[in-house]
Amino acid sequence: MSTSTTTTANRAGFLVEPEPTGPVAQLYDQEQERQGYVANLTRVWAQSPEALAVLSHALSLATTLAGLGEAERALLTTATASTMGDAYCSLAWGANLARAVGDDVAAGLIRGDDSRLGERGLALAHWARQVVGDPNGTTGADVEELRRLGYTDQQVFGLTFFVALRQAFSTVNDALGAAPDAELADRVPPAVRRAVGFGRPSPT
């Protein structure tokens, strides 16, 4: 018997979960094996495992185009999620960012304070916030600043593509009611958890 049949609830967010068979069962089993539970957002995306695979492929492509390392991915994702008020990815990726830059710096970024980031991190956070908050407000000077730091035009495209995809992912999760998992909240550094005072709360 598939392990996913014992972990599936009736609902994921606002949607009724599909039957855990075929691609859905495979998706659930892979996540159960990887982290010990099936995340709420995965239960939402189980409506179309193919859509999740397409988005994951696009994010991988964007990461390659931008030349992002793990810390830069965490910074961009956390800046994107916190700017749009998404608690789920702010917690998950804020925890990843904390491992790279420290709990207090990651918590500050989530609260909108980028002052403790280095020059490169500051520019990335600024770009992510601008793309999310006011894409029509970007200027050539913003792009020139990224060039000055060594980013090629293809990498700037990749950065922008990455942020836009992360925003799309968070939008689907938030709009369809996926709340952060209790298991996730339990493993997030306290400073990061306290900084996330927005979005859907974790179940208690």
Automatic annotation (TrEMBL):
It comes from the Bacteria. InterPro entries: AhpD-like. Gene3D superfamilies: AhpD-like. This is Carboxymuconolactone decarboxylase family protein.
